[in-house]
Structure formats: C-alpha cells, structure tokens
Structures
1.
Amino acid sequence: MNDLTQTPEMIIGGMGARARNAAAILARTSSEDKAKALIAAAGALRDATTKIILANRKDMERGAANGLTSAMLDRLRLDEARIAGIADAVEQVASLPDPVGAVIDETQRPNGMKLQRVRVPLGVIGIIYESRPNVTADAAALGLRSGNAVILRGGSEAVESNRAIHAAMVAGIVESGLPADAVQLVPSTDRALVGAMLRANGLIDIIVPRGGKSLVARVQEEARVPVLAHLDGICHTYVHAAADAAMAREIVLNAKMRRTGICGAMETLLIDKGFAHPEMLVAALLDARCEVRGDAAVKALDDRVEPAQEADWDTEYLDSIVTAGLVDGVDEALAHIAAHGSHHTDAIVTADAATAEHFLQACDSAIVMWNASSQFADGGEFGLGAEIGISTGRMHARGPVALEGLTTYKWVVRGAGQTRP
C-alpha cells in the first residue's frame, strides 16, 4: 500500500519504478502465460461480482447526490450482466493473437544482412480516465496481453468500483504467477497525482487520456511524455438525397438512441435538402424522446424542435439531445463536419456508391462509415477485442486502439560478419 503522506512525485515515482520492473517481466512472458493470467482475472471478476456491485452502489449513490446526469450515471452503473460482459471482454482479449514478437516485414540487403521489424511492447502505459469503471478491466487486460505494465488513474465518480475491479484483476494475475505491479491503480483521486504522471518522463512511456475536453486538454498541455489522445466524439450522420428512407430512419435512431452516453453516439444529424422525407427523421427522434435542436429549416419541419445555438454544433451531449441541420449536397456536409467535428466517427447514408466513396475519401476522421450506425465505433465491434480508447490524432495509432496499437517495433539485424566499408 502506498504511503499517502508522500508527495505525488514520490508516489508516482515508486509506482513507475515498480511498473518498469513488471514490464521487463511481461516483455519476456510467453503468450500462453499471459492468456492464462487473463482467464484467471476474468474468473476473479466473476467471483467478485457481489463485491463489485456493492462498491458500485456507493459510487452511484454519491453520483446521484452530486447531480450526475442520467447519461453519466448510465456510464457508471454496473450490474451482474455488465460485470459478466466485462469478464467476457477480458477473456476475449486473452484469446486474441499476441502481437508481441510478430514480424511486420523483413528484407535482405545486397550484402547479405537480414533485417526484420519485430513488434515489442511500449513498456509502461499510464491511463487517465473518467466515469466508466469497465475501463479499469479493459486497460489492464489490453496492457498485460500486449506485454505492457499499466498505471491506472480513474475518476472520482467511480473510485469504489475501480478499486473493486482492480483488486479482482490483480488477484487473478498474481494467482497465475505474474507480478501484481503489472496493473497498478493510483491510490488517490488527488489531481496532483495526475500532474505527477504527466511529468513522469523515463518512468511512463505513453499517456492515454479518456474523458472530457478539460481532461484531454490538460493532458496535452502538461504532458512531458507522449500522449495518445482520445478526444470527444462529436459524431455526424449525413443522410444523402439518395438514401433509402427506411434505412436512414433505423440508422439515425440507433446512432443516437441505442446508448446516448458513449463516444460513438451521433451528436449531429445532417440531412440533405434533396432527401424526400426529412420530417420523418426528425419526428422519429422526437418520438423516441430525443430533444432536437435544429437550424431554421429543421425547425420548420416540426414545431417540437428547439432552435440550435452556435455552441450546439460543437457539443458532445452524451445525452438524448441532437443537433440537426439541412445541407446542400455532400460537399456542404463535409465542410460542416470539417468545421465542427472532432475527427472521431462520421457516417453517410446513401444508395449512391459514387457519393459514398467521395465521402469516405474526403472525410478526415479516424472512422468513416457508409450505411452503418456510428455506434459501431468500438474495438470489440471491429474484431479487436476491448479497446483502450479511440485515437483521434494522427501519430502512432488511429481509431480503436487495441493490442497492436499498444506495441511499437524494433529492428533486428542478422549478419554473417559484414563490416561497413
């Protein structure tokens, strides 16, 4: 247990040193042993279901008392089904191919030297996240499977849930013979500890922030180590003039209302002026108890629509609210997305393949979709297993970041006595 009378730098320094030692062990641990540890961790999560639910109940009660929105409370809530899903996700990660040691490519030079690029772990990953306690298990599983040690700093909203999940995960990992320090949880929600993590150059190799704009902005501004940013999800669905009306209705409803509190939820609906039934899409959302904030053209379609303010086009609601507007063609839709989007996930609904391909090529987002709900923006749905986040940047990894995104590579050169002239 960490001595909380220590300074934040001392606490993070100690955790980082222990994580560095654990990472060295994980880097040479076999794929089979890492998988066994995760299977044991999943079993420990299931065994601890009652403890986790009781811990989560404390977080939920405190969250309600502190005025958390219904969407935030939904992100926080755990029950038997969700805990079973978390354990299943850990097992799924165990079953995925181990990226460590994979040969990316290989060549032979004219002098006979053989060169390979081989995947290796990043080392020690710091993950700073808010609200969702499942991230504790997902990040631990992905880190261990990819040979990395992780230092987790969850938000104050989920402090009890995170501790219970972490305790179960570590019990399974230790039972399998791997070090407890492979997965560490920062012992306090003191914001000074976040600052210490961001300055832990040489101990932490990369920081992954998952949370709101203020968290990500702070991390990017203060970090002295590389950052893999998971920015907000201002996701758009553009319904083209040639869209099938029934398909468009189902996609729009699912993209917004399936789960409003996830980063892949649609926040802005753009409807082509040439689409025959814009009022149907607006009414469907309103009838589903979604507040629609529209421009003048959308407001004219249904008197239940609220007028959109300028800030609405740049807002990630994470709630049953959507901004809607009419646009004049695909290029106007693309221009709007470029001006107001967050480069997360944007979709087009159309039966016109040429227009769809134009959108897919021109839209500069980490994930672009054609005739599919933006709610599919998820590592599990992409076949990657659990994800550590969706990177909206351009460096290292983009889109859902799973096992491969948590590795780098080294060059391996095999010679036969060659010397350079």
2.
Amino acid sequence: MASDPSLIFTNVDYNAQGKQVDWLYLPHSVTRSAYGALAIPIAVIRNGDGPTVFLMSGNHGDEYEGQITLAKLIRELEPEQVRGRIIILPAANLPAAMAGTRVSPIDQGNLNRAFPGDPQGTPTWAIAHYIDSVLYPMADFHHDLHSGGSSLKYVPFCSMRNSGDPALDARSLAALQAFGAPLSLVWAYNPEGRLAGAAAARRGLVSLGGEFGGGGDVNRSSLAMLEGGVRRFLAFAGVLANTPAPEPRTDMRMIEVSSREHYVYANEAGLLEPLVDLGAEVQAGDPAGRIHFIDNPGREPVTCHFRRAGMVVCQRHFGRVERGDCVAHLGTDV
C-alpha cells in the first residue's frame, strides 16, 4: 500500500514562483461532513532556482515552540528574500495540533512513529505517507522542530540523527554547527526507524531535529534560540538571498543518546519526587527520583536510579507516574 499514490490533494503549485499559503486536503468523511477533508496548512515560498528546504512542526500537537516559529516565518518571509524554495508545514499532524495533544484525537496516531506511512491508512498514516512520498523527494534540507510536549521537560538542544552514510552525516553535522545551539545532540543510527528524521535520512536529506522546551508551555529563551537557529539553518542551506552562510559554532557541547541505558523508567505507580535538577551531571547508580504511595502513606517510597553517568537532558513534567513511564534520560558527551 505504501507505494500507492496519496489521497491528499492541494491547490498549491510547488513549482510556481512567489508565495503561496494554502492547505493540503485529506478526505475525511464523518457524520457532520460526508464529503469533508482535513485542511492542513502549508506554505511554499519560491524565487528562482536553488535548493529546497522543508521545515516542519506540529509533528506532535502539544509541542508549541516550533509551531509558533514556523507560523511567524510564514508571515515574515517574502519571495525576494528567498533563493530557491522553502516549504513549511507548521501543523503537520493537524488534529493533534488543534487538540494540543501528542497524538491525533481521530486515530490516536503518533505521526513521529508512523513513517513511511500508508496512503490508505487513517489520517496520521496518510499524512506520514504524503510527507515521505511527496514532500521529502522535493527537498534537499529538512528540519523537524520538536519540544518535550506536555509530559516532558528538556534542556533545549538541536540534534541530528546518524544515517549510516558518512558523507550525509558530515553534511548534517555541518548544518548542526551552523544552527548554533549551545547544546547539540546526536541520535543513534536506526535504519528501520519510523521517525520523521529517520525517514528523511533514508531519502538522503540533510536533516536536523531538536527538543526546544517542553512541559506544555512556551519558553521564551527556547523560542528565541529556535527562531535564530532556523534562520541560520536556512542561510546554511543557501536558500536566503544575500545572506552568507553562518560561521560554524565550534564551542557547542556535543552529546549523544546511544542506548536504552540512557533512560530511567518508573518501576511503580505513584507520585514522583525528582531528586536531581534538569541539566545536572550524574553518575551511574545515582537516584533519579522517588515514587511515593499516597494511597498507602505508611509504605516506604521506591527510588529509581540512573544506570550510567551523564547529563540530565530530560525529565518528566507530570507528577503522577505509572510503571513504565520515562522519569528522565541522559545525554553523554561524544
């Protein structure tokens, strides 16, 4: 089915010069709208020949910094500022973005676990298929903007994902240095990954990601870092007219997440008391959090421990946990 053409249609002409702000229409027949469609916003800005950059946010609907950044970029960029083409999808999983949820309220689909998608599938998988089969083949560069969503808090970072192709990884690393985040992360190679970044790597795109905040709010410093970094990424790609490529940042801290040992999971259900701060340096065996049992207050709390040394780049935001919830995860220096 993945080789079938997409059912999504649009009035956008990807080859036309100028600026278009329109919608992708995914047929969605329901009781209140028998011949209806989900209208997913998209912008295309083109001026002459040059590279194509595809920017995406709203992959998870409760991650807001990227959605704001790309909405502002759509309003601010004009064709005379562009050399080539910029495609912007600010609310990729529109049902999730409108609901402020990680997954779609229509099909409970997690877009970032749905690639390469299915054109005959439910909306989340149909959207993934359109991105993978229509938008990625047009692009040379890709940036998928994330944050921790409502359940996680992150130390803001930009990231790349190893592709297994050394030449492509070197170009992505150069893009990461051009983005200029103080903290940058390299995700492990996963050739079978269902994430957008893994799919972009399979298409040969120079691709970045990142986690720019979290906790279900909009962090002003993270937003400022993201807005400036996206502009530098566009300049690095050569798609901004009269804007030289930025100097690569060489003083950023490079970390990686390369194994499940970087993650700490709740081993009981209860109320989580964090025992370290976000951004702290820890050692293997250090306590990550303590789980309390308010329905049985006489019971001693249970402690979760880190399994290796590193920097705490992510912590759970919600106070209540179930067994198996991620309490925290580390990054370790490359």
3.
Amino acid sequence: MAELMVVRHAQASFGTDNYDKLSELGHRQSAVLGAYLKDLGWVPDRLVTGTLVRQQETLASMGFTDAPETHAGFNEYDFYNLLSVRFSGDVPAPVMGDRKTHFRTLRETILEWQAGGLAGSDESWTDFETRVADALAFATDTKARRVLVISSGGAIGQLVSSNMGAPKPQMMELNLQMRNTSITRFVFSSRGMGLVEFNSLPHMTPDKYADMVTYS
C-alpha cells in the first residue's frame, strides 16, 4: 500500500487585506512539521499542492525546495465569493473581523451552498465535489509510495467525508475541526483507499509548541 499524507496549510493571514499568505507563525509551524518528518525519516517521493500561495509557502517553509506538482482541486472553496452572493455584495463587517461570527457564518453559508443555494456563485457545490475528487485521482494515479499534498481545510474535509461515505453536512463539521499543519493520512492501492489518520498534530505534542496550535 502507498501512503497519501494530506497537510492543511499553516496559519494564513486572517484579518488582513491578503489572506492568501502565511503569517509569521505559519512559517514557524511549517518548519516544525518539516523537522518532524525529517526526524521521522518520512521522505515523500511526490510533492503536490493546490495553486494557492499559502499552500506553496507551507511546503517551502517545511524545507522542500523542489517545485511541486499542482492541482487546483486541492484549493479551498472561495468563501468570500459565497459570502458576497449570500449577502448581495454587502457582507456585514463582523463576519470578517470577529472570529466567532466568522466561523458561525462560515458553517451556515456552506450548509446553504451544499443544499443547492447561493445560485450565481462562481462555483457550485457539485463543482467543488468534482474538482476535489479529480485532485484525489491525480494525486493517487502514481507509482510513488509516499505522496505529500498540501491542501486546505474544506478540501480535506471533503476528502475525508467522501471516503467515509458520510452525508454532505459532515464535511463542514470536519472542516471546522481542521488545525493548521495538521496531518490527514490515507493508504491507497489499485483496490481502493482507506483513512488511517485525521487532523493530527504529532509535531506539536511537546509542551513548548502548545501556543502554536491554530485553526485559521
């Protein structure tokens, strides 16, 4: 069996004009994960990311200098576009500035999207499901034995939910649990794929890293 390790990107720049870049803490989180994998002796023979800057910066700060393969199916859904559709272009300020309001609204919005709402958004829920499935097929159509993917919370939640055959809303529950640089791991072969680890942070276990655990 081959391994597929899917890592959620490190902390991005929440609350700034450009979310799609790592914060200073995000770079440090990535370095800790990279050092952990090196010490473990887990060396990937294929590198894949989405096309987002925060994903590619995570891989680079983990210490991987080779250019990864990319697949946009590993990108996050465009929450800002979904919000714009939901609120007709006038998104309430607390949604973007207050974490509690932000994540409550995130859950409500994605559940509405999954149910077929938010017509006119740039991407339908069905389109999102399809591109994540396509990305998974891309990453596992390989002779590599250890595939490392850097992705985002929503896409990872969908990978796990789909693999479990769970109802659509379960994806959102998984999404909201996702921690930055967390590891989700599958084993795969021509016969199928199985989940063996979800949202783990073994590299953050020492007490000295306790204050580095983040969710956004």
